[in-house]
Amino acid sequence: MVGMRQPGTRAGRAYACALVAATALMLVLAPLAGPLGDASADPNTVGPAPRSPSAGTLALDPGDWDAQPDAFRGDWVVMQPWEYDRIPALKEQNPNVRVLMYKDVTATVSNACVTGPTGKCDQDQEILPAGVGYWSALRDHPDWFLRTAEGDTMEWSDWPGLHPMDITNPDYQQAWTDSVVSELQAHDWDGVMMDDVLTRLSHTVVGDAVSPQVPDDAAMYAATTSFLSNVGPQITAAGYLAMPNVTVYEDNWRPTLEQWTPYVSGWEFEYLVKYGFGEDQPFGDEDWQWRFDLISWAAEYDVPVLAVTYGTSYDEAAQLYHRATWLLAWNGRTGASMYVPEESGVSFWLSGATADVGAPAGPVETPAAGVRLRPYAEGVAVVNSGDETRTVPLGGRYLVRGEPADRVELGPRSAAVLSSALP
């Protein structure tokens, strides 16, 4: 669930915000072009900043864009729909960039509103973070809301102001589609990032309310299948990317992606290497493994994934763990890693989170227990997902803390992205 931060910290955000054969994955992406510039060029040379096609920017909260002069350096950007006037500059700086508009799927937002004639907040604002407005739906389509057995509308307690909708309702599905496609066509968007695409009832609800329309996890999965199978193909048929932010788990990610991927263009996947927005414990062992397996599966089938981790701007260890995990799986063509800092007003283009070592130059290796390494054209990515410190032979000479070395020591649940040492 991504959305909009309240002042201060991203953790306080309150709103709004097969194996499938490759031939069956009818994706609408054009092939990624090669780099615009040479990342190894003299940094004092006047010219465009080096690009990193395998990184991207997820900038959704107030103040984010004031600190993102480097967003064009990645090939993927996700931003709120009212930020459309930034698209021309991004595409002038990087013609390959894909800019996605944020929209919530499963909920609508009551506090995305303006004051009406009554003096109360009872009208939807012009541009919304959801596909359907809360106030217009409440007035004209009350049947679109999930309701309790007593007929009351519901509200997520973990995201106050967000109200779950009956996403199986065909009129809601079509209204959502028509609204989103109309906004995509109005500006030079490449597609939509569809938030809250759920496989389970994973949001807590005020009063622990339950709706008989979607009473359990199985019903939630069926509801999302209905929505994606109808809406995703309409968006792609209109010439746009449909990129849901999917909530999956160790025991359901593979069948879910195998079933749903043919309906869409790719996926956003949050919490790649840790939960939370601060300096939380990174995943290790099995928790790390299934997430790595997910992005590796997507890379194998050329399914773009936007892999997101939240943290702080000063936690370089988390940034490197995030980035190196992504580089172990990346196929050199599709998707991007996105590290989102907790703080307001800081650049997302952090050195650890966007470390660039060129194109993949070989398969993943296992030089030590719990360790994976992958050579790149200009360096190496190495991850220790275990709980013991390992000294890792690198199979070549790389810059370790500024000095050429052929091995590196990695603590538990840590990583490195190392540049090649000069001959």
What descriptors fit this protein?
alpha/beta; TIM Barrel; Immunoglobulin-like; 2 domains; four-stranded antiparallel β-sheet; 7 helices; globular
General description of the model:
This protein is of the alpha/beta class. The protein folds into 2 domains: 10-41 and 48-356, TIM Barrel, CATH 3.20.20.70; 361-423, Immunoglobulin-like (Sandwich), CATH 2.60.40. The model is unreliable at 4-47 (pLDDT under 50). Helices cover 21% and strands 24% of the residues. The chain is built from 7 helices and 18 strands. It has helices at 87-93, 134-140, 170-186, 217-237, 253-260, 285-300, 316-329, and strands spanning 56-59, 76-79, 98-104, 107-109, 113-115, 121-124, 162-164, 191-198, 241-247, 267-270, 305-311, 336-341, 365-368, 371-376, 379-384, 390-400, 403-410, 414-419. α3 runs parallel beside α4 and α6 (285-300) packs across α7. It starts with 55 loop residues before the first strand and ends with a strand. It is globular and about 70 Å long. The strands form 6 sheets. It has a 5-stranded parallel β-sheet. It has a 4-stranded antiparallel β-sheet with strand order 13-14-15-18, with helices on one face. Strands 10-11-12 form a 3-stranded parallel β-sheet, with helices on one face. The longest helix has 21 residues, at 217-237. α4 links the parallel β8 (191-198) and β9 (241-247). This is Glycoside hydrolase family 15 protein. InterPro entries: Aldolase_TIM, GH, GHL15.
